[in-house]
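Key idea: predict the complex, not the pieces.
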Amino acid sequence: MYKNISSKLLLVLLIFMIMPGCHSYVNHAYTVFTHDDDPFSLNLIPHTRKVEVYSTTDISKEYKIISHLYGVTDQTRVEVVVDLLKKEAARIGADAIVDLKLRYQIAGLRPLGIQATGTAVVYHDRQKFIEN
Amino acid sequence: MIDKSLLKIKINAMRFLLLILSLLFLNGCFSTRTWSTHFTQSGSTLYPKTEADTIKLYATFPELEYVVIGNVLATGNDQRQAEMLIKREAAVMGADAIAELRVNYNVFGEFSRAMIALSGIAIKFRKNIDDEFME
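Result:
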């Protein structure tokens, strides 16, 4: 009888030990503002529109950094995590995300999802337009 | 007597079910999977596919003039496999090299097995773009 109980207990323990390694991340993105400038002090009106995404900081337009963005997903498709960042950037009124960094989240011997970081920027010409 | 044998069968079936269940969890958690993907940045040109074997890897950006195409990332069970996969992704984008290559090395303790994740920026050398236009 003790043998039966201990074998069942062992199986249950095994399952509970494995389960934490199997849980999924919630798709999530968040913002850390740089300096004292948030989109409101820049007189930007947050609204959803097309946000451009660049892999490096070297882009053809002049810009001002407004925040750093972080995103994570348990999806294998890279578009999912990039869309999360784009939505977050659009919400805070950014024109583009520069310096996009992507990496796989690994737990044990398998990838759990994709992590992304980027810098939300507003173009100088748009900033001037808003100020005028 | 019949009830006892039925009970025994039920217990055995339950044990079998638990075993299958735990094996399924084990398979999901401990099997090694390789992933690779890429992201093309805004406004990037669609270049013809290149050969994965010719893709160069750089820890920083090279001194040669280049244009950025996008991000590439891959995982592998060893460095060779991860490099092969990330080069394939870059080749699909028409890149000549991967700059700012970053390595995330993960060892799974008890089994001493590794999973390597690579990420970088796919770039194309300007000299090769000119050559293609000349052709």
